Amino acid sequence: MVDPNTVKRLAIGLAWGEVLVSQVGEHGHRDVMSIGTSTAMAAAIQQRLDGGVIGINAALRELLTGSLREAFKWDEHAKAYVATDLNYDDTMDLIASDEPQRALGAVTGATGIAPVGAAAYVTDRSEQPAEPLKPWHRG
Amino acid sequence: MASRLNDRTRGRWESDQAVLAATAAGLQLKLGSNARRARIVGTVAVARPDGRCDDFEVEIRYPGLQPRELPDTYDPVGRFPPDPDRHVESDGRFCLWVPEAAPTRAFRAAGGLALYLCRVQEFICLQLMYEARRKHGVEPYWPGDAWGHGDDGHCEWIEQTTAALDPVALQRLLGAVKHPGKPSRRCPCGSGRRLGNCHKQWLRDVRHTWQTRPPAQFAAYQVLEERRATPPAS
Known about the structure:
The complex is a heterodimer of chains A (139) and B (234). With 139 residues, chain A is of the alpha+beta class.
C-alpha cells in the first residue's frame, strides 16, 4: 500500500521541434549529442514547473485540438502552457467532451452490451430512435 | 402487495427485472410488501471513453407502484454535487430532460427501462466530462447541449417545437392544451391534418407539464407574446 503522502508529484516539460540526436566520439568513448533547441527547451520548462504540472511549448500546443488544447493555459512564470493535475482520465474525458454525442453513442453501446442470450436488451443508442440527451434544471 | 398489482403491471415488473438482470446486474428492483413507491437501487456500470467500466451508485425512484410511470434518478451518495450548471438538483435528482421532452411514451413501451438506463449512463458520462472541463477551466463547462434553466427551458422547447407556426396557429394550439378534443378532428395548428396525426402528443406533453409545473404555462404564453412582437420573416 502506497502512502499518498509519499507519492511524488512530477513536473513534466515537453517541447515539440526538430532535433538531431546522435553519438559522437570513438569506440567506447561516445557521448550522446543533440542539435536543436527542443530538448533544452523541454528541460527548461520542466525546471520552472511545480510538481503535478505538465508544461508544453507553443508548437506542441498547436498540435493538440479542442478541449485538450484549451486545458493548457499560458503561465508567465513557467514561460509555457501548463495544465495542473492532468491525468489519464481527464485527458480521455476532455477529448470525448469535444463531441459528446458521438462519444455517448460509443459509450452506451459498450456499456449496454448484454450477456449472451439477452441480446434483446442491448441498450445501444443507434438502435433507439431517441433524441440526444439534453438536460435541464428547474432553476 | 399482490392485490395492488394487476397482471399487466406485474408482467411489466417481471420484464423490467429481466432487463436489469441482463443489462445492469448491479441494480435491484425494490418492490417491498409495504412500499408505496417502487425503487431501483444499486450501481450502474458506465463505460469510460477508453472502454473501461466504472460503477456509480444511483437510486431510481418511481412516483408510485406503476412500472410505466417515468421515474426519477437520484445520486444517493453525493458523488455528483448539486449544482444547476451540472443539472443536479439539491436533493441529488438528475435533471435528464425538460419535462415536455421527457420520453414518457418510449418508457411505457416494451424495453422502456433499458432506454431509460441508457440515458442515465449517458448523463453520468456527461457529468464526468463536465468535471474534467471544469477542473481544467475549459468553458463552457457542460459538454454538449442543455436546456436553459427553469422557465427558459420551457420557452426554448416551445420555440423549437413550434418554430414553423405563426402566432395565430400557436395561440390556437396553446388554447387547445387543456381541452384538445377528439383525435379525429382537425389539428388546431391549421395543418389540415387530423389531430391524432399531428399535435396530439405535443398537446399531451404540454398539458402534463402544465399540470405538474404551472409556471410552464406562463412561459408558453410568453413565447406567444414574443412571436407576436416579432415581425414575420419575408
